[in-house]
Specification:
The protein has one helix spanning about 1-10, and strands at about 20, 25-30, 35, 40-50, 55-65, 65-75, 85-95, 100-105, 115-120. By secondary structure, the protein is mainly β. Strands 1, 3, 5, 6, 8 and 9 form a 6-stranded mixed beta sheet that branches. A 3-stranded antiparallel beta sheet has the order 2-4-7, with no helix packed on it. The longest helix has 8 residues, at about 1-10. It starts with a helix and ends with a strand.
């Protein structure tokens, strides 16, 4: 019993399970405008977790001609991990066509939305 308690206290999961969570995205960077025929490159930044056990698992995407909605999913894989803070630095390449304005939306864990508007020229 004390081994399971000790492993749980140190962040290790003796049964190999993983905890999923939504990632809080703090910022979106990219151009303010894009031509209707070029690929749009944007980066997303945020905080994943307090140890190397926290990773970006996958990104849900919903694309329309005038918007891209994203939800970032993380996973705490447990086990023996580095104790360094882990940050999100994710790049998306978005292919045309685009309608003006093109809006990038990120759903946050608290239900709010972070957005970036890109003008199409």
């Amino acid at each position: 019993m004390s081994v399971v308690v000790l492993l749980t206290m140190t962040g290790c999961d003796p049964f190999g399970g993983a905890d999923e969570f939504l990632i809080q995205v703090d910022s979106i960077t990219g151009p303010a405008s894009v031509s209707s025929t070029e690929t749009l490159t944007v980066r997303f930044y945020g905080f994943l977790g307090p140890s190397g056990c926290h990773v970006l698992d996958h990104v849900d995407r919903n694309r329309t001609p005038d918007a891209l909605e994203l939800i970032f999913h993380g996973e705490d894989r447990g086990g023996t991990c580095t104790q360094a803070l882990v940050f999100l630095d994710h790049q998306e390449e978005i292919a045309p066509p685009f309608q003006d304005p093109f809006i990038i939306l990120v759903r946050q864990p608290d239900g709010s939305v972070l957005e970036k508007v890109v003008r199409v020229r």
